[in-house]
Amino acid sequence: MSKKAKVLLITPNLKGIGDGVNRIQPSLGLLLIAPILEQNGHIVKIYDSALDGWDNRNLIDEKNNIVMIGQTDEKIANTVSNFSPDIVAISVLFSNLLESAHNIARIVKKVKKDTTVILGGNHISSAVSDYKIAKISKNSGLPTIINDLEDKNFDLAMTGEGEFSFLELVNKLANKEDISKVPGLVKKIGQEEYLINPSTRVHDLNLLPRPARHLVDMEAYFKIGAFHSAKSRSKRVLSVMCSRGCPEKCTFCSTPQMWGNNTRWRSTEHIMSEIGNDVKDFKIGEIQFDDDTITVNKKNLYSLCEELQKLGLPWCTPNGTKVNYHFNKQEEMYKVMADSGCYQITLACESGVQRILDEIINKRLPLETIYPSIENAKKAGMLVHTFWIIGYPGETYEEIQKTIDFAMNSGADSFSFAILSPLPGTPIYRKVIKENLWWGGRTLDDMLFRSSLVKVDGFTGPDEFENFVNEANQKANLMLKTKDPKRFEYKYGRDSEANALVKQT
Fold this sequence. Notes:
There is one protein chain. This protein is of the alpha/beta class. It has 2 domains: 6-196, Rossmann fold (3-Layer(aba) Sandwich), CATH 3.40.50; 227-490, Alpha-Beta Horseshoe (pyruvate-formate lyase- activating enzyme), CATH 3.80.30.20. It is 37% helix and 18% strand. Helix 13 (330-339) runs parallel beside helix 15. The longest helix has 22 residues, at 462-483. 50% of the residues are buried.
């Protein structure tokens, strides 16, 4: 008879600027791993340290007003001690969560030293592709996979879509079997040498179970009400992913490393089964689809919209989608979306300069399609939020100004100017490493999406550029609010502040 394990799945504390961290929701990755483990007889607990300690805000950098939000070391230790897990897996979505992840690993080993501690999530899945770069740059002061796995408190790492491969790993660990061939496994095997197994993809997403939302405190998330959309219609939000993968190859994006370039869709029946059950169980008032490119497949989108129209709940696309998908029939597509309940679409514009789109981002987006797309969505009755990124390597000060001006004249209902973050595993990250474009004293630990890490033309340092971007956001949002107060209103937010949207970026 095979042995079973007690598995603790952890989301670490969050790091942010002042009170700017106002986004928290259950980790969908852990919600999918948990039921697969449960179905195979393992005992599972999901622990969101940031949620548990949401009111704890520890100032860790007074100069830059950086806070760590989440539970205290003592209470994390109590959680580990009370559950007494055989295996702990810590999911790191973004590189700036590594500090907390390493701390939690240390706590786990102190409480129960024989526990196997595993690092997983988007960060390691992307960073592992830069293993050779990490070896070269290990003395640069930049966090790398080497830093991650040289930490004696981490025994293993897992990369890629880990729902079924993690089950295989847990089964083998529980029964003391050889783990060396588990897909996606990363293990130290020598002095700065690692076993790195290729990860696998879940090709049939209909094999995924209903997310284990029964294992988390959904009411606590609802109470905070800090989900992706700045204009949420309800605090009882359900976050759903219909697809994985993106056909685009933007140089700043780590999605291809995690999900691949081929878009895979769940069936409409599979999606609506999840939504229908969770709407009933949790009295859901709004759906937010976290897909990277929900509009890329019009056939699947229309099928989903047909069922969403019957459901009668508002929904939106907070993660953004490419501007010019199905451009010639876009009016029709946006009307179908709006009629089914879509109140806001987010468009990933990224730049208002064609050279940046073509030569630096590698985004197949004609600039002349942006304004009509925004207009088409507004005609359909949807609010339009747009994403813009500034501070690319090689971008001039004049081009930054052009992007700001282009965005402010776009007609969008809201937008945010984000500072480029060089994510591990991306071409831009490799360029920054190769050309040593880091601001002095800045590393991936400082990546907060409103923090400047990369040298920018026309600015003397990161603080100057951050202030410039904050001011641009404030001016833009003040303009929007003055121009059309009704469309700028927030049901849940701080619409009294000129920089309300800044806090959403």
